Amino acid sequence: MMSRLRMRGAATAVAALLALALSACAPGGEAPDGEATTPSTGLPDGVTVELQQGRSDVAARQAQVVVRNGTDETLVVGSVEVEDPRFAAPIVRVEERESTIGPGRTVGIRVQLPDAACAGDATEAVGSTVILDYTLGDDSGRASAGIEDPIGFIEPLHVRDCRADAVADAAHVSFTDFDPSPPGEPAALMLGIAPTGRSAVLISGIQTTNLITFEDGGDTALETLPIGLEVREGDTGMTEVSLPIVPIRCDPHAVQEDKRGTIFDLEVEVDGEPGEIELAASEELRGQVLTWVADWCGFGG
């Protein structure tokens, strides 16, 4: 009797293990903890993807997964995720919704770029993988495929982000105040540098923007205003540098349509290697600067 019970118990266990194995191997199945398994299917024939970033995406730190439906049926795309080892988390779509793409049509699905991954193998790793849920005619599923970055924006972004992290480890750098000026005279934009004491950085200069340049008393606009401030390991206290700024142009639409006029390229040197990081004015300071430009140029309200 005991022998038959053992045999029956063993058979039940084998059947359970077999069912578990089959469910784990099934396409689009779920793992025992309820998490979706990694998709094993590629994109449907005729469907292609690219990762692109337009100028309007930069300020919001976004990009677009551009999906082209080269089939004869309507394509519906739901969840979109891009995995890339150069980022600390997956790139996901900005809005949780579905995108309907007709035959022969192309749609850009906006995605949010997370913080960069700057340690370990991330500095040398390349390549992105897109994972998306789709319905194409009567077929639906989750597809995974490599995705190209044809304009090559990810690698420079990763380099800048990691350089910015290194600068932030040495000092907190920001625009701290703004003192407007009457027409014909330079205003003062204050640059604050507060060392952390942890590491060193050289703040060598700051470049003009498409809207703002620097006044040095000469007849020509400066491309770069030298700063030459060295932050050493162990330094403390705040240093402020007054930047004498003037508008580089006075056409009204330059202010009305401005997106990057108060985002400056700061020239730095970390561990003996020169480079640049972006430094943006806060929304409050940005508003003050744009109002000043309009008044300075004579078209303010």
Description of the structure:
The protein is of the alpha+beta class and 301 residues long. It has 2 domains: 47-151, Immunoglobulin-like (Sandwich); 157-297, Immunoglobulin-like (Sandwich). Helices cover 22% and strands 38% of the residues. It is built from 5 helices and 16 strands. The strands form 3 sheets. Strands 1, 2, 3, 4, 5, 6, 7 and 8 form an 8-stranded antiparallel sheet that branches. A 4-stranded antiparallel sheet has the order 9-10-14-12. A hairpin with a 7-residue loop joins β3 and β4. The longest helix is centred in the N-terminal third of the chain and has 24 residues, at 2-25. It is globular. The relative contact order is 0.12. Mean pLDDT is 86; it is low at 1-40.
